[in-house]
Amino acid sequence: PDQRRGLGWDLDSKYAIQIRGDVFPARGFGHSGFTGTSLWVDPPSGAWVVLLTNQVHPSRGDKEVIGALRREVANAVARAIIRRTPRGRKTAPAGGVATGFEVERGRGWPTLRDKRIGLLTNHSAIDSRRRHLADVLAAWAGVDLVRLFAPEHGLRGELNKPFGDGVDAATGLQVLSLYGARQAPAADDLADLDAIVFDIQDAGVRFYTYTATLALAMKAAAEANVEVVVLDRPSLLRPDIVDGPLLDRPFASLAEYHPLPVVHGLTAGELARYANQEYRIGARLTVVACENYRRDMWFDETGLPWVNPSPNLRSPTAAILYPALGMLERCNLSVGRGTGEPFEVFGAPWIDGTELAHTLNAWGLAGLSFEPVRFTPAEREFRGQDCSGCRVLLLDREAYQPVATGLRIAAAIEQLWPNKLNIQAVSGLLGDRQAVERLAEGVAVEEVMKRWQAPLADYLARRQAYLLY
Q1: What sections of 397-452 are H helices per DSSP?
Q2: Domain coordinates of the chain in residue numbers?
C-alpha cells in the first residue's frame, strides 16, 4: 500500500509526500526526477506544480534538502489555491439582505411601538452600518427599553465563563445574566414588561447555546403572558443544509437542549417557531423575518458585516468547520481554543500530525484537505502543552459534510492511536450514544450514519411548516 504507482506516475508511494506536500489530498499524480525536478497534478483543483532545479551541478547536494524544498513548494501552492474565494460563491442580492432588525425599523417599529421591552441580545445585534439595536432602541422615544438580558459570553461577547448581573455602560441599563445563577428570566424580571425581544446571531448548530437560551426565555415569557419578538438573522451556515442525528437526550443543558440534528437548518426565528409548537411552549410569538434572504446563501453571500458571534468563532471558515470540530471538543483533544485558529486546527501532545494528515488526505474527505501543524493552546484542553495535529483547509464548502467529517477525524485518530482518544465523550454533542459505541467498535462511519436517516427524514418533513425562506 505504500508503493502505489500508475503507468509512469507516482500516485501515493512513500516518495509522493515529497512532491505532493502535506496539503493536497492523495487524489492526484506526479513524478520526480533525479536532478531534483518534480511535477504534481491535482485534478480536483486543476493545479499543476512544476519544480525545475538541479541538485547535481556543480556537485551532488543533500537529497533531504531537495525533498524538503519540493514539499514546501507544493504546500505553498496548495495553500494559495485553497485560500482563494470559496468555490461557487454567489454575490449578494441588490441592496443586500436586510435583517429582522432593519426590516422592523424600516417599517417604523410597528411590533415594538409603545411597549415596555426587555432585550435579550449581545454584541452581534448590529445593522449593516454596525449600529447596535440596544443603542438604537434606547435613543428612540417610541419604546420603553427597560432592561437587557445577556446569553453565554455576555453582552459584549467577550466572556468564556459564567457571569453575574451588571450595568451596560453604553445605555446605563441593567443587564441580567442568563448564563450564571439563572438561565431564564425570573417572573420578577418579566413583571413590568410587555415583550421580550431577541436579536442574536446564531451559528446554525444545535450545541451553540444562544437558541437554547431563547427557548428558555420563551417558556418563561409564556408563563408570564409576555410577548416574544424575534428579529431574525441569516444563519452562519446555509439553512438548506441539515446534517447529523437528532439529540437523543434533549433538554439536559444549554449545549444539549434541542431535539434537533447537529446542523438543524433553521434560522433563529424559524427555530423559535419550531420550538414554540413542537416543544409545546405556547408563547405569544412574533418573528420579523429577513428580506432578500434565500436558503442557499452562506453568510458571506448576504452582504452583511461579519462580527465574531462568540470569542472563538472568528471567521466564516471557522463557523463552517465548527459543527465538525465542535462535536469533538469534550474529548481529550484540543480544537484550537486558546490559539489564533480556533475550530480550524486540532491536535494533542500524543498525536503525530504528519501521519494523521496523510491518513485523512488519503481518505479523501469531501471538500477538505489537512496539513500538519504544531500549536500550544493558551486555554482549555492541553493548556500550555505542545500539541501536534492538523490544520483543516476548506477546499469546497459545497461538498463538505460536517458530521461525517467530525466522525472520520475521530475514527482516524482511534485507528492510528488505539484507546488514546476518549471517543465516548463525542456522545453528548453528537447526540447519538449508540452511534458512538458502534464507532468505537470499529464500524465504518457510513454504516454508523445510516441509523439516523429515518428520524432525519421525519424531522425534515416536520420542519417544513416552520420555514420562512
Answers
A1: 402-416, 427-430, 433-440, 445-450
A2: 3-82, 100-306+461-466, 316-431
The pTM of this model reads: 0.84
Q: Which three cell numbers stand for residue 313?
A: 468563532
Greatest Cα pair distance, the chain, in angstroms, is 87
**Tell me: the pLDDT tens digits for 35-92?**
888 898 988 678 888 988 887 766 666 667 777 788 888 878 877 776 544 555 565 5
Amino acid letter, 53: T
Those residues with Cβ within 8 angstroms of residue 195's Cβ, 6 or more apart along the chain or in another chain: 112, 115, 116, 117, 118, 226, 227, 228, 229
How does pLDDT run across 391-449, given as a tens digit for each residue? 999 999 999 999 999 999 999 999 999 999 999 999 999 999 999 999 999 999 999 99
CATH number assigned to the domain covering 100-306+461-466:
3.40.50.12170
So what CATH class is 316-431? alpha beta
Q: Is 142 exposed, middle or buried (0-12, 13-18, 19+ CB in 10 A)?
A: exposed
Give the mean pLDDT per block of 10 residues along the chain (469 residues).
73 79 79 85 83 75 74 80 55 78 96 97 96 95 96 92 94 96 97 98 97 98 98 97 96 96 98 98 98 97 96 96 97 95 97 96 94 95 96 95 97 96 94 93 93 95 97
Q: What are 154's three cell numbers?
A: 455576555
Backbone torsion region of residue 273, taken as left when φ is above 0, otherwise alpha when ψ lies between -120 and 50, otherwise beta: alpha
- The answer to whether residues 154 and 163 touch, using CB atoms and an 8 Å cutoff, is yes
Q: Cβ neighbours of residue 313 under 8 Å, at least 6 residues apart? A: 203, 236, 319, 322, 342, 343
Q: Which spans in 22-169 are helix H?
A: 63-82, 100-106, 133-138
CB atoms within 10 A of CB 466: 19
Amino acid in the structure at residue 95: G
Closest alpha carbon to 412 in 363, 354, 447, 373? 363
DSSP for 5-42, written as a single string: E-SS-EEEETTHHHHHTTTS-S--EEEE-TTS-EEEEE
- How many CA atoms does the CB half-sphere of 382 hold within 13 Å? 25
β-strand 285-288 against 227-231: which pairing, if any? parallel
Residues 6 or more apart from 416 whose CB is under 8 A from it?
352, 355, 356, 359
Beta bridge partners of 388: 348, 374
**Using CA atoms in the order 156, 263, 406, 392, what is the torsion angle rounded to 10 degrees?**
-60
Q: What is the mean pLDDT of the chain?
A: 92
Residue corresponding to grid cell 434606547: 138
Contact 244, 323 (CB under 8 A): yes
Beta strand residue intervals within 309-367, DSSP E: 345-348
Tell me the C-alpha distance between 403 and 405, whole Å. 5
Q: Among 240, 233, 241, which residue's Cα sits nearest to residue 287? A: 233
